[in-house]
Fold this protein.
Amino acid sequence: MNVERLWIIGLMLISLTTCQKQAVQPKVYGRYVPERKDDFAWENEYAAFRMYGPALKPENPSNGVDLWLKASPELVVDSFYYREHVLGLPYHINYGKGLDCYKVGHTCGCGGLVVLTEEDGVYHTWIGGPYDRWEILKQTPDSFVFRLEYDSLPVAGQLLHEAITITAAAGQLQNKAEVVLTDPLTTNPSPLTLLVGGGIYLHDTVDYYMTIPEVGYVFYEEDALSDKTAAQMNYEYNGSTSQGRIQISVKTPDATLTDIVDGNLVAVRPYRLGDTLTYYFGATWSQFKQ
C-alpha cells in the first residue's frame, strides 16, 4: 500500500471520527447543582431552567420554575454556574451567551405547578417550597428526564406530597411535566376539590398575554429586564437596559380555567389526588439566534 493511499485512508478515518463526534453532541443537558444550594438545572437548545433545592430553604424559595435566557443552541448551564461561582461574574448580566433575569421569588415562576382551591366563588393559589429529593431517570444527547419530590405542599390546611417528572427534549419549545399529588397521611379520598395545572407569574405590570381556552393554552410576553435589579446590573455593565423580550407559554390539556388568578396566568383543570396530570411549559427569547 503506497503512501498516498495511506494518507487518503487516514483523512477518511479523521473525517469519520469527526462526523461521529458531531453526531453525538448533546442538545439537552441537566444536573443536580450542589455548589449552588442544591439547584436542579436543565436546558435544551432554546432555554435553560432550574428549580430550587433544600439548601435554599432559609431564603423561602418556591416549587416554581426559574428561567435562563439563551442566545444560541449552545449548552450554557455549566458555564453560567462556573462564571458565577468561580469567576465571580454574575449570570444576571448578559456577556453574550444569555442571562438569568427572570424573578421567581415565592411564586410558580415560569411554568411551575399551580394548585387552586375555590371557596364561595373565590380561588386561592397554593405554592410549595423547595424539593426534598431528586432523581435522574434518563439522560441522552436528545432527552433529559428527571423527577423531583416535595414532601410538604401546603394546600388548604393539608400537607400533600408532590412528585413532578419533567422531560426536556431536543427541538421542543416546551418541557413536559407529569404531576402526581397524594395525601401521605391517609388512604381515604380527600375532600379537597382541586384545580391543578401550570402557571406563569406576572411581574409588576401585566404586559401582553393571551389565552386559548379550547386547547388549554396561555401565553405571556414581557420585557426581559422587568426585574429592576437585573436591569440595573446590565445597565452598569453595558450602558443599556434593553435585552429584548421573553415569551412564555403553558398548555394544560382539558383545562377548564385559563385566566389570571392571584397574579398568575394559569391553565388548570379539576384534579383527583393520586392521578397523573400532564402539562407543558416553555419559553423563548427574542435575541435567540439559531
Observations:
- The chain has a mean pLDDT of 91.
- The chain has one domain: 29-285.
- Residues 29-285 form a domain with the Beta-galactosidase; Chain A, domain 5 fold (CATH 2.70.98).
